[in-house]
Amino acid sequence: MRIRLSLVPGPVVRQQELASRRRALLLIPLLAIVGAAVFYVLLVNDTRRAREVIRDTESRLAPLRLTAAQVGQLQAEIADLAQRRQALLGAAGRGQLQLSLLLTEISQVIPQDAWLQTLTVDAGTLTMTGSALQLRSVGQFVGGLEQSQRLEQVKVQNLQQVQAGLRSITQFQITARLKGTGP
């Protein structure tokens, strides 16, 4: 058992308790104000450091932004060139394939006593000039071209007999439209 004996009179003890409570009541808001001030100081320091980091980062990024813009332009240019290349390769590939098949077909229908001197393809029109030892060979050649799956509107534009020594040679010019290219 514990006994406590106070020699301080009751009114003085109450005054001391009241003073202690007042100090506690004053200390709580004071601690809150000090805490807010410390928090504010920490916040200001963090903000200052963040601004310094941002400034430093911006100074490092400034030269890179120009480079990034140039890289973006170059990438767009590369994509455009690649697209153009594909289109050209596709067009060239289709033209070469059709032309090689057409040349194979012409070589199969030209008579043995006839030969071509020029073959021109321009805007979907095929023009051939050549010579034959006999006139009927030109007719056979035109007939073979008319049977072609790649040609239409086959026409003899010029036909002429010339003397070459003791022989008579028929010179010809034939035109035709490539199917799918004309009006």
Care to describe what's here?
The structure is a single chain. With 183 residues, the chain is an alpha+beta fold. The protein has 2 domains: 9-109; 111-178, General secretion pathway protein M, EpsM (Gyrase A, domain 2), CATH 3.30.1360.100. It is 61% helix and 23% strand. It is built from 2 helices and 4 strands. The protein has helices at 10-109, 135-146, and strands spanning 114-122, 125-132, 151-164, 167-178. A 4-stranded antiparallel sheet has the order 1-2-4-3, with helices on one face. A hairpin with a 2-residue loop joins strand 1 (114-122) and strand 2. The longest helix has 100 residues, at 10-109. It is rod-shaped, with a radius of gyration of 51 Å. 7% of the residues are buried.
Question: Could you give the topology of this structure?
Answer:
Blueprint (H helix, E strand, L loop, with lengths): L9 H100 L4 E9 L2 E8 L2 H12 L4 E14 L2 E12 L5
Antiparallel strand pairs: 1-2, 2-4, 3-4
Task: Describe the structure concisely for a colleague.
The chain is 61% helix and 23% strand. With 183 residues, the protein is an alpha+beta fold.
